[in-house]
Task: structure prediction
Amino acid sequence: MEGHIKSQLANGIATITFFHPQSNSMPGALLRQLAEEITKAGHDTAIKVIIIQSEGDKAFCAGASFDELISIKDLETGKKFFSGFAMVINAIRTAPKFVIARVQGKAVGGGVGIASAADYTLALDTAFVKLSELAVGIGPFVVGPAVERKIGTSAFTSLSINATEWQTAGWAKEKGLYVDIFKTTVEMDTAITALADKLSKSNPEAMAMLKKAFWRGTENWDTLLIERAEMSGKLVLSEFTINAINKFKAKA
Result:
């Protein structure tokens, strides 16, 4: 399998890093592995806080793997693939630890979903965002609840409809997706390290209770996001979507 997931624990801080050579786009197997690592970290009493990041200095996450999307030939396979992002979002949601996201580059589709699902997201000022799903004939169904929860219905609607245009990191901060943005990686990493260090010394029980309170009202997401995955799995089989993905891949 191309790409990898790596986990590192130091001083009560778990850092989970994902990588794929195609702009950190995520095939199903990597998504499931990422979800498993987040869940494992959530259950580990030695871990007080979780950081999610990707490798490289360009894209944070380019969303779903187009190579895998175009290979889907039946509804069950499609549902299983899109369930990968559902599993990652739900793993972040249910982990009784705060999850910090480090967004060092552009985020597309599922990448916006991961950044939105994190409890506290910091980014570079070059970390533009785009929900491109409609442009290839699908829709941000799986990540939608996480994005809408974070930035509100109006901003989520505009991001979903204007599927071919990037929104700036400044826009993402203004809408609440990013807590803060930085000009350099050094500044961003300094802020993340300082926050993670403070949280690692905070009361785990209080943080777990706060986490549960923050996510109140999302208890149905275990089923909702899988239902959304089935919607995307159905659309990806359509002639319109197949043609749109092939056109996109031809330009890439």
